[in-house]
Amino acid sequence: MSTFYKINHQIQAKEVRLLREDNTQIGIVPLSEALTQASAAGVDVVEIAPQAVPPVVKLIDYKKFLYQLSKKERAIKAAVKKVD
Fold it and tell me: What does the pLDDT look like over 11-57, one tens digit per residue?
């Protein structure tokens, strides 16, 4: 995986656009509130669009997120090999 995602306290923005795991938007909230909601739900705050203003973060399980990304990358690599 070549992309690095900031999680929880690595995020430096004061305000963020917060999404739930199912991509429903909660809204623009202070980072401290996003961290509080994440800890209450037992998940992580992951910055998925740092270039946006304000940055977009998502309440998800980070390890599960990385696993799903690696599955997608493996599927893409397998499809490329079949084409050759």
Answer: 999 999 999 999 999 999 999 999 999 999 999 999 999 999 999 99
Query: What is the residue whose two structure tokens read 């961290």?
Result: 35
* Token code pair at residue 74: 């493996």
Strand 15-19 versus strand 56-60 pairing type: parallel
**Phi and psi (nearest 5°) for 45?**
-100, 115
Helix (H, G, I), strand (E, B) or coil at 73: helix
Q: Does residue 30 have a cis bond before it (omega within 30 degrees)?
A: no
**6 Cα distance to chain centroid:** 8
Instruction: Name 7's bridge partners.
Output: 46
Q: Is the pTM of this model over 0.90?
A: no
